[in-house]
Amino acid sequence: MLSALALADNPTVRIRSADQARAVAALLRQSDFGAGWQGGQTKASALRAPSCPGFDPKQSDLVVSGHADARFTFPGEGAVVEQDVEVLASAAAVRKDFARTIRPQLPPCLAYELQHSANVVSAAVGKVPFPPTGAVSAAYRATVVVHRLRLRGVLVSDFVYFAKGRVEYLLEVSAPLGQQDQLGRFELALAQILLKRAAGAQA
Q1: Is residue 1 part of a domain?
Q2: What is the DSSP string of the chain?
Q3: Does 22 fall in a domain?
Q4: Distance of alpha carbon 71 from alpha carbon 84, whole angstroms
Q5: Are 15 and 67 in contact (CB under 8 A)?
Q6: How far, rounded to the nearest angstrom, does the alpha carbon of residue 33 sit from its chain's CA centroid?
Q7: In this structure, what CATH number is given to the domain that contains residue 78?
Q8: What is the span of the domain harbouring residue 143?
């Protein structure tokens, strides 16, 4: 579910056309956002398991049969939404993935990875409350100090994980620090759109 180092125990990818179509259908659309937002589906990133000091959960026995990404931006507010969707072999595999990954070691792992990103000076990550969403869910908030072109600023980046059936969702929402109080409601609204769409597809 996370980008990480090449030494991680990465999931096995065996794309099936039906599940790939399901992953693409589970992406957010520009029509899900208000005026001023732009973006859509992007090239899916390579799947990497977390790999941080003291945290390298097993994922190679999990088979990903569909994978799609999307990215949306609101340039006027400096907000970014990135979405990753994975379709696994079974709902049991999804629960196994969450049980292995959503652990106390995950927040420091997210901070470790952020601190190794371009222009990041420091990052601190903690778990935040989030209403039960789908079959399993969890949310984390990163406070990130960035330095670019002689300018230093603070961003908030939320990581919202949830799943329904065989489909895993990750929403990463970033915005300037002053907008942090609005993010939880915004993220929940996006998650509810996706879950409603998934329920309709299964009807």
Answers
A1: no
A2: -----TTS-PPEE---HHHHHHHHHTS--GGGS-TT-EEEEEPPPPP----BTTB----TTPEEEEEEEEEEEETTTTEEEEEEEEEES-HHHHHHHHHHHSSTTHHHHHHHHHHTSTTEEEEEEEE------BSEEEEEEEEEEEEETTEEEEEEEEEEEEEETTEEEEEEEEEEGGGHHHHHHHHHHHHHHHHHHHHHHH-
A3: yes
A4: 9
A5: yes
A6: 18
A7: 3.40.1000
A8: 12-202
Owner of token pair 């960035």? 146
CA distance 148 to 113: 18
CB-CB contact of 70 with 59 (8 Å): no
In tens digits, the chain (203 residues) has pLDDT values of 433 333 458 899 999 999 999 999 999 999 999 899 999 999 999 998 777 888 989 899 999 999 999 999 999 888 999 999 999 999 999 999 999 999 999 999 999 999 998 899 999 999 999 999 999 999 999 999 998 767 788 999 999 999 999 999 999 999 999 899 999 999 999 999 999 988 765 54
pTM: 0.91
Asked whether residue 3 is domain-assigned, the answer is no
The count of structural domains within the chain is 1
